[in-house]
Specification:
The chain has 385 residues and is of the alpha+beta class. It has helices at 11-27, 47-53, 81-87, 100-110, 126-135, 145-153, 157-180, 187-200, 264-283, 290-297, 299-302, and strands spanning 32-37, 61-66, 72-75, 93-95, 117-121, 140-143, 204-214, 236-246, 249-254, 256-259, 306-307, 312-315, 319-324, 342-345, 349-350, 361-367, 370-373, 382-384. The strands form 3 sheets. Strands 7, 8, 9, 10, 12, 13, 14, 16, 17 and 18 form a 10-stranded mixed sheet that branches. It is globular and about 70 Å long.
């Protein structure tokens, strides 16, 4: 089976991760971790599994990682086993059928962990957890998803190399869309173009969300997940949310377009967008708290607007902490930025009726000197006259 061109991390990087996770498990006082993933959100829900295995299967999958002893990885679709065995980093990879919980339970019993403290990571199916609790009434099961994912917020040099590759592809896609977005072009044409360019850049297209609407008769405020056959028109505004991955590691780029001169209402929304983007970007540095960023985001409400999306979120294979909305919504859980975290900054000032809105953002790295974009694309609207 060919593995040519499939991005891989070094053995040193993967060993580092396993050691890091085991140390976290020991600090949490558990004897083993059971990690679960599934294919939801374009396999983003495999992020926890991928971190230890380099695999993001298209189905449910489990990893048992004892503090002492070798890890085992189960694949639940028999015909996917060969590819997983070829590409996975964990040497002990096995098949598990529909009774995956029973197979996992048998291994827990075999390893003498039936009365132990086991940490759970992931969004498990309730039937699996019920089966494990029934099989091991003397065991203690603890949700360790949060501390596990916190480890994943801080990126290694190799992880950053992957995200930078994805960011470069995002830039290439956005440049191509800026060339091709003209009156008469269908929204779906831009989707096809985005995928072609991402593949050509050696990356994988994840998604392009996009909305187009007349600025004078605006009906939408944020990128849509379903792209239509609507043809672009002079006087439109376009919002885009583009995600591209390299080896499952993602970068995200959000750029608005004006097809012609903006209306006064859109000029005002764009002015707020630029100001809040700059305020948040300037504030992001090691030691900044999510609560401080939440307060800064209140600039949107203070300007008489609201938002329908988060203003920023951590990123990697999937969305990570911090993930916060504007001050008008519930405050975020405690979180402190550290050097080496990658964040997608993406404010979305919107009118209260959600009829008018714009979004602009990019993936950046928290450094000792502040927030550094991974992209060459300037933080600005793309104007097409």
């Amino acid at each position: 089976m060919s593995t040519e061109g499939i991005p891989k991390f070094s053995d040193e990087e993967m060993t580092r991760r396993h050691q890091l996770v085991r140390s976290m498990a020991q600090e949490a006082g558990v004897d083993a971790l059971l990690i679960f993933g599934h294919s939801g959100s374009r396999r983003h829900s495999q992020g926890d599994i991928h971190y230890l295995s380099q695999l993001a299967p298209y189905h449910e999958t489990y990893v048992l990682l004892p503090v002492k002893g070798q890890a085992v990885h189960w694949i639940t679709h028999y015909n996917h086993y060969a590819s997983a065995k070829e590409n996975g980093w964990i040497p002990d990879i096995r098949r598990a059928g529909k009774d995956a919980a029973g197979v996992v339970a048998a291994e827990i019993e075999k390893r003498g962990l039936g009365k132990s403290r086991i940490g759970l990571v992931g969004t498990f199916f309730y039937r699996d957890v019920d089966a494990l609790r029934t099989a091991f009434p003397s065991a203690t099961f603890t949700d360790l998803s949060a501390p596990y994912r916190f480890l994943r917020t801080r990126k290694s040099t190799e992880e950053l190399d992957f995200q930078r590759k994805a960011a470069q592809a995002c830039d290439a896609v956005m440049e191509a869309m800026a060339r091709e977005a003209r009156p008469g072009v269908e929204e779906r044409d831009l989707l096809v173009l985005s995928e072609e360019v991402a593949w050509r850049e050696g990356c994988e297209p994840y998604f392009l969300y996009l909305n187009s609407t007349s600025m004078r008769h605006s009906t939408s405020c944020v990128p849509n997940q379903e792209l239509s056959r609507r043809r672009l028109q002079a006087g439109d505004v376009i919002n885009t949310e583009l995600t591209v991955s390299y080896g499952m590691y993602c970068a995200q780029l959000l750029r608005p377009f004006f097809l012609g001169d903006p209306t006064p209402e859109y000029e005002r929304v764009y002015s707020v967008l630029c100001q809040v983007h700059a305020l948040l970007a300037n504030a992001m540095k090691p030691g900044t708290t999510a609560q401080q960023l939440h307060e800064i985001s209140g600039f949107i409400e203070d300007s008489g607007l609201t938002s329908v999306d988060s203003v920023l979120h951590g990123f990697g294979v999937d969305i990570l902490l911090p993930n916060l909305r504007t001050k008008g919504f519930a405050p975020p859980p405690p979180f402190v930025l550290e050097s080496g975290m990658t964040i997608v900054l993406q404010p979305n000032p919107t009118t209260a009726d959600e009829r008018v809105g714009m979004q602009m953002g990019e993936t950046g790295l928290v450094t000792e000197n502040g927030f550094a974009s991974l992209h060459k694309s300037p933080s600005d609207v793309i104007r097409i006259n």
